[in-house]
Amino acid sequence: MATKIRLQRHGRKGYAYYHIVVADVRAPRDGRFIERLGSYNPNTNPATIDLNFDRSLYWVQVGAQPTDTVRNILSDEGVMLKKHLLGGVRKGAFDEAAAEKKFEAWKAEKENKISKSVEKLLTEKDAARKTRLEAEKEKNKAKAAEVAKQKALRAAELAGATAPEEEEVPAVEEVAEEAVEQAVEETPAVEEVAEEAPAVEETPVAEPAAEETPAE
Fold it and tell me: What is the pTM of this model?
């Protein structure tokens, strides 16, 4: 039976992760499988790979064909290298101890690279965080300055628009009383008016003329 090592999709839309499985080449992609070898999550940085190394090596040795993506995963995990080294041992190119030594040297170098890569990512992440904080501080300063400027303009406008205090308006009763008093003071007394009026000249009364007595 021809077998393949491939990915079986799981997860949700926008966040997919995969199981690494051995399945019959005739089975649908997400259908039945023979054995699960591990998982692959590309959503993390770096990608998270959980692999059963010995079982993966076994299936590769018995002829299971990995897909391109799975081959890259197996190469990164050293499965393909170990298969190559064991092939050299069988051919007599070197013994098993030498093969194991080469594999351990490769593994140590790989771990060193991963460690440096993770350290670089953390450094870049920290630098990006600091840059973001500085930008946020500058933005907050500019916003505070703008708010202060607006407050100052508003205060100036309010100060300029404030009307002077209105003079106290006397009550209606007080105005009426003052008007009456003023009118009384300005009106002359009756005696003064009488004195100032011109005297009326007496008009002489004409005496009636004596009637003439007619002569007899």
Answer: 0.57
